[in-house]
Design brief:
Elements lengths: L8 H52 L4 H7 L8 E6 L4 E4 L14 H9 L1 E8 L6 E8 L3 E8 L2 H7 L4 H70 L6 H33 L7 E4 H13 L8 E5 L5 E4 L1 H19 L3 E9 L3 E8 L21 H7 L5 H11 L4 E5 L5 E8 L1
Parallel strand pairs: 7-9
Antiparallel strand pairs: 1-2, 1-5, 3-4, 4-5, 6-8, 9-10, 10-12, 11-12
Length: 428
């Protein structure tokens, strides 16, 4: 059986906050890194653009620009300068021979300059000398001046984003995580106390309702027994037949009281002492066979035909009495109220985690609006018939509690062909 790790409320709350916090932090770090890189690239390009504009003025004024390039202070020691016509032809390069250079009109930085007046491109390998450069281009009226800085360790360092903010953000996040832990622990404990208090209040309310219902259910059989006993003890002359009738009535009502007390005891055990209810290895197939054997010895007029579709062995950890109560109460419910002749128990799914089972009868079913209330304690679709049949009104409530005790769920629906269908699961 697979083990399930259950986290306390404050731990779940802490994990949610931490996941959200660190997601925000990493998104911010990524955004900040890209923004800082962009800022440094823009700043570097601005430095080159300033030089480009000075050189562009000299070129377009017709002054000797080669001398200016050789003698004027450059923004960077190793700077490649290229002068390009608006058609893309290279007319000057201070590093390479212009005869070796092809048309530059399709260079990304040139395309940007032609479109916007200036542009730059990061980390493109030169087709001429094979080196990687940071390019910056500026457009004039007749030519484009392009400068380029070859990539080196110093340039990489210059363009690299400052990671000091990363250290600061991580430090702040760690502190916030610690604070969040203590806050959520305190908050979680308070919430758990409130939930526990509410659960206890709800449990007390259910107990009061159960007590009131029990008192109401006890009145009729107790009153009937008292009347019968008073008649028997009054000294009134009774026929043997009448005396036997009164005794049988006392027995019937006493049996009803016994069943009611047993059912109440079972529900109370499941609610208050679930940890005390033992579990063992159970073969569900054997329990169903036991139900079938009990049907066989019932009077013919009450007996229903049981059809099972269990094509494999179903083994689980559970309580034999509670698992048995599921099938017995569903069977008794079908016998008492369905007015059908057949019961169908089918294995829908059986895996390592759980088994899913359906229980059906071919009776008349119930009205749709009554379906949600069938598992309520002491709820009866037909109260008169239920008392005649000796039902306690707790059978389906016991079924639901027993299923939930074994980690499963149960639902009820009307069959298209008539009758009720109960689908439930049992955790292994």
């Amino acid at each position: 059986m697979a083990s399930v790790i259950k986290l306390s409320y404050h731990k779940r709350l802490f994990l949610v906050i931490i996941v959200f916090l660190w997601s925000v932090v990493f998104c911010f770090i990524g955004f900040q890194y890209l923004r800082e890189q962009q800022y440094k690239s823009d700043f570097l390009s601005a430095q080159l653009q300033l030089y480009n504009r000075h050189l562009l003025e000299i070129v377009e004024e017709g002054q000797p620009y080669e001398e200016y390039i050789m003698t004027h202070n450059k923004p960077f020691d190793e700077l490649r300068v290229t002068i390009i016509t608006l058609s893309g032809a290279v007319i000057y390069d201070n590093v390479l021979l212009i005869d070796s250079l092809d048309n530059h009109r399709e260079r990304p930085e040139v395309i940007q300059a032609l479109k916007n007046g200036s542009g730059y491109h990061i980390g493109r390998q030169s087709a001429s000398d094979g080196r990687e450069y940071f390019y910056s281009a500026t457009k004039g009226e007749r030519v484009i001046v392009r400068t380029a800085i070859p990539y080196s360790s110093s340039l990489d360092e210059l363009l690299k984003a400052d990671w000091n903010f990363l250290i600061v953000m991580i430090s702040i996040s760690v502190v916030m995580s610690i604070v969040a832990f203590f806050i959520t622990r305190k908050l979680g404990k308070n919430i758990e106390r409130i939930k526990y208090y509410e659960a206890e209040q709800e449990k007390d309310l259910l107990k009061r309702q159960l007590t009131n219902n029990i008192n109401h259910e006890l009145k009729t059989p107790v009153a009937s027994i008292q009347v019968c006993l008073e008649t028997l003890l009054s000294g009134i002359s009774l026929t043997d037949e009448k005396r036997q009738e009164l005794i049988e009535r006392c027995y019937t009502n006493n049996e009803r009281l016994r069943r009611l007390l047993n059912d109440v005891s079972l529900i109370t055990r499941m609610e208050d002492g679930s940890a005390l209810i033992s579990k063992e290895r159970i073969v569900v197939n054997d329990i169903i066979k036991g139900v079938a054997d009990e049907l066989e010895i019932m009077p013919k007029e009450e007996r229903l035909n049981l059809h099972t579709n269990f094509n494999e062995m179903v083994v689980m950890e559970g309580n034999v009495s509670l698992i048995g109560s599921i099938f017995r109460n569903l069977t008794e419910n079908a016998i008492a109220y369905s007015e059908g002749r057949n019961i169908y128990i089918s294995l829908l799914e059986n895996n390592d985690e759980e088994c899913r089972i359906s229980f059906e009868d071919d009776g008349k079913g119930v009205q749709e609006e009554q379906l949600p209330r069938l598992f309520e304690r002491f709820y009866r679709v037909d109260k008169g018939r239920s008392r005649q049949k000796g039902g306690t009104g707790l059978g389906l409530a016991i079924v639901k509690h027993a299923v939930q005790f074994h980690g499963g769920t149960i639902k009820v629906s009307n069959r298209p062909d008539g009758g009720l269908r109960f689908d439930f699961s049992l955790k292994k």
